[in-house]
Design brief:
The complex is a heterodimer of chains A (602) and B (189). With 602 residues, chain A is mainly alpha-helical. Chain A contains 16 helices and four strands. Chain A has a single domain, classed as Cytochrome c oxidase-like, subunit I domain (Cytochrome C Oxidase, Chain A). The chains are: A mainly alpha (602), B mainly alpha (189).
């Protein structure tokens, strides 16, 4: 509990009696230490482990629907054993297929890559890297996790009801999602989806408020904004995006809830469903898309920015070189954060959007290529002629850069409204956003886990398993998603259950089989990572020095297993930026070291 | 956590700052809803409404409650605890009065046959938007109630004015938000 932390008043250098204080060593019950903990590090771990459980569920769903896509109509009797009437005769039923696709998207985008990624690393790293005992409000921080937990429980429960979970795609466009009579997935499952997402938004806002307040108000002495590691900058912009865009999603969902349950016509107009003429008039389904994508697009960057920040940090530490172009990195993060709010309609080019308006959104969308290219250039120049240590974290960070380039380039295709008319809702889109946002951010997350695992648990992850994990995932990701570009260019639609009646798509039959087989292998390797993760928590090689990677940032000045309050004694003072690597013949100079008289300028 | 705060070299108290960010966030939600209102008011089947007069009374109630809370903050800072207690009580009563008046406003609209069913109009938006605003006021009333109980029955003497100021900022915010929403509905609805 917060009462148990004793913190010395006064700034660094001020002598304080230590006799009756014991930092973080107070007796805590199991419940306050591990369950309802207000320690940001424990909350970070709670987010991470919940995120891992969600990732297994979401990943398994993708394997299941890939079975249908790779082997349409084929019977896998084991599926009926597990899923009953959802897989009658061992083949995945249409309702089940759409539920799987929808839940895969929802789970991965929100529960894994938003809560699991920024929830974990914002909680773990912000207080440690800015030099604070804890978040601005540890209690709100705890609430943030427990709202996420509640959201998880509601979302999980929707999978066990008779009519199944939401099945209209993760974007839940009305009118399909607004009318229970339209499909099974639009019945109770959809209401539970909305409730779960509302709880999720609350969790994400409580977290985001804390992150912003902590970064702006609780930095240690000497930690000016331009001395912050890029991880913190990235998490800062992520939090701002979340705080300003999630409420808009919430308002869209509230209106949807009214349409579903109270008969209003916010999104519904002139609809005949199952022979029945509905009285709704004057609603606009496009309105929902505007509200949804006003969140939905910033959400892409909510997912991606933390990964970018961590990759910047890890590449600099492990190439033993300062980050190339710190201010340019910062400026490009800022530009991406601004542009994130101005491009949402590029998801709506084929909704009958005014072509003039469309061209404005094309221009703004293509502008994102500029800060993205700056970042890629800086990552590559950070690596250039560096003294690179190829740890699994480094490999995943380099993999992130590779995926970000490949996925970013196809974004230029899709950002053009004319080309998008051909490519929208094809497998090309699936390939694009999985590479650039899904897999790339997963790689950022893996890089972060391998790098900060010693800080989290005082032990290392097994490196050999880490290398296997990296190479199989890297090669697998390209084998899975690269061919999808060709399918999409040929016009193959996404989300379709069975494309057998289109003769022209038959040529992709074997390709789809290959994709399915590879995705099963990649999924198995992720399970190996999960094993590595939990095994290493208890049995991994122990960390013996406080600064195992030779890094400059403040989290490595804490004890190996820091208590609540992080530092024993004073919070260290910061004298320099975080990237003095390979300077004046020294491998690294921690941020806490005062600038020497003869030191060259950075 | 007071000690954590004190040793940071901060200019604005983190809790106050957090509240300002939260206010920005809440504003985004209402911005989303009011822009949805504007988009939809140009579509077919739109019906305007006449604002029930009872909403003017609720406006008066919430403005008065804001004034009362401001007086409470001032008396807290001057350690005039008696006046502080009575002003907190007055704010709480006026806040509850606001909510009751809102209920009568909704009821008056409902009786004019403006219901959820059927084609859309300003009425449905009013229920959603004013309803969400009322939820934010209820949140404020709960916080006021806690503050009220602490002021009357609390055993510990409080000297930091931060909680009172945070409360006041939030309360003024829902007050101004209400005035904005009312003007919005009168001008555009």
């Amino acid at each position: 509990m917060s009462e148990s932390i004793h913190i010395h008043p006064g700034s660094v250098g001020h002598e304080v009696a230590h006799d009756d204080h014991h930092h973080g060593h107070h007796e805590q019950s199991f419940i306050t230490k591990y369950i309802f903990s207000q320690d940001h590090k424990t909350i970070g771990k709670q987010f991470l482990i919940t995120g891992i459980i969600w990732a297994i569920i979401g990943g398994l769903f993708s394997v299941l629907f890939r079975l249908q896509l790779g082997f349409p109509g084929q019977s896998f009797p084991i599926l009926e054993t597990f899923f009953g009437h959802w897989a009658k005769g061992g083949t995945i039923q249409p309702e089940f297929y759409y539920a799987l696709v929808t839940m895969h998207g929802t789970v991965l985008v929100f529960f894994v890559l938003t809560a699991g990624l920024s929830g974990t690393f914002a909680n773990l790293l912000i207080p440690l890297q800015v030099g604070a005992r804890d978040m601005a409000s540890p209690f709100m921080n705890m609430l943030s996790y427990w709202f996420f937990f509640l959201a998880s429980i509601v979302m999980i429960s929707s999978m066990f009801i008779q009519t199944g979970p939401a099945a209209g795609g993760w974007t839940v466009y009305p009118p399909l999602s607004a009318l229970g009579q339209a499909s099974d997935g639009s019945k109770l499952g959809m209401d539970l989806w909305i409730v779960a997402m509302a709880l999720f938004v609350v969790s994400s806002l409580l977290g985001g408020l804390n992150y912003i307040a902590t970064i702006l108000n609780m930095r240690t002495k000497g930690m000016s904004m331009t001395r912050l590691p890029l991880t913190i900058w990235a998490l800062f912009f992520t939090a701002i995006l979340g705080v300003l865009s999630f409420p808009v999603l919430l308002s869209g969902l509230i209106l949807l809830l009214f349409d579903r349950n109270l008969g209003t016509s916010f999104y519904l107009s002139d609809i005949v469903v199952a022979g029945e003429v509905l009285p709704n008039e004057g609603g606009s389904a496009i309105l929902f898309q505007h509200l949804f994508w006003f969140l939905g697009h910033p959400e892409v960057y909510i997912i991606l920015l933390p990964a970018m920040g961590m990759v910047s940090e890890i590449l600099s530490v492990n190439s033993r070189k300062p980050i190339f172009g710190y201010m340019a990195m910062l400026g490009s993060l800022f530009a991406i954060a601004i542009l994130a709010f101005l491009v949402w309609a590029h998801h709506m080019f084929v909704t009958g959007l005014n072509p003039f308006l469309g061209s404005v959104f094309v221009l703004l969308t293509l502008l994102i290529a500029v800060p993205s290219a700056i970042k890629v250039f800086n990552w590559l120049t950070t690596l250039w002629r560096g003294n690179i240590r190829l740890f699994p974290s480094t490999l995943f960070a380099i993999g992130f850069v590779s995926l970000f380039i490949s996925g970013g380039l196809t974004g230029i295709f899709l950002g053009n409204s004319t080309i998008d008319i051909h490519l929208h809702d094809t497998m090309f889109v699936v390939a694009h956003f999985h590479i650039v946002m899904g897999v790339a951010s997963m790689f950022g997350m893996f890089a972060g886990i391998y790098h900060w695992f010693p800080k989290m648990f005082g032990r290392y992850l097994n490196s050999t398993l880490g290398y296997v994990h990296f190479w199989v995932t890297m090669i697998g990701a390209y084998l899975i998603f690269w061919p999808m570009h060709y399918e999409g260019l040929a016009g193959m639609p996404r989300r379709y259950l069975d494309k057998a009646i289109w003769k022209s798509f038959n040529q992709f039959g074997d390709l789809d089989k290959m994709i399915t087989v590879v995705s099963i292998i990649v999924f198995a390797v992720q399970l190996m990572f999960v094993f590595n993760f939990f095994y290493s928590i208890f049995k991994g090689r122990k960390v013996t020095s406080t600064n195992p990677w030779g890094a400059n940032t403040l989290e490595w000045t804490t004890p190996i297993n820091p208590g609540h309050g992080n530092w024993e004694g004073e919070i260290p003072e910061v004298h320099r930026w975080a990237y003095d690597y390979g300077k004046d013949g020294r491998e690294f100079i921690p941020q806490t070291e005062p600038v020497g008289a003869n030191e060259s300028k950075h | 956590m007071e000690t954590v705060m004190n040793q940071q070299r901060n200019k604005i108290h983190p809790h106050k700052f957090t509240l300002w960010v939260a206010i920005a966030s809440i504003l985004m939600m209402f911005a989303g809803l009011t822009s949805a209102f504007i988009v939809k008011s140009n579509l077919t089947g739109w019906r305007n409404i006449k604002m029930p007069t009872v909403f003017w009374y609720s406006t008066a109630a919430i403005i008065l409650s804001s004034v009362a809370l401001q007086v409470a903050v001032r008396s807290f800072k001057q350690r005039e605890m008696k006046q502080y207690r009575s002003m907190i009580a007055l704010t709480l009563v006026l806040g509850i009065a606001f909510l009751v008046l809102q209920y009568f406003g909704f009821k008056s609209l409902w009786d004019q046959n403006i219901k959820f069913n059927g084609s859309a109009g300003a009425g449905q938006f009013l229920y959603v938007i004013f309803g969400l605003h009322a939820l934010h006021v209820i949140g404020g009333v709960v916080a006021l109630l806690v503050m009220f109980l602490k002021a009357f029955f609390g055993k510990i003497k409080l000297y930091s004015s931060v909680p009172v100021e945070v409360m006041a900022t939030y309360w003024h915010f829902v007050d101004i938000l209400w005035i904005y929403l009312l003007v919005f509905f009168i001008v555009i609805g």
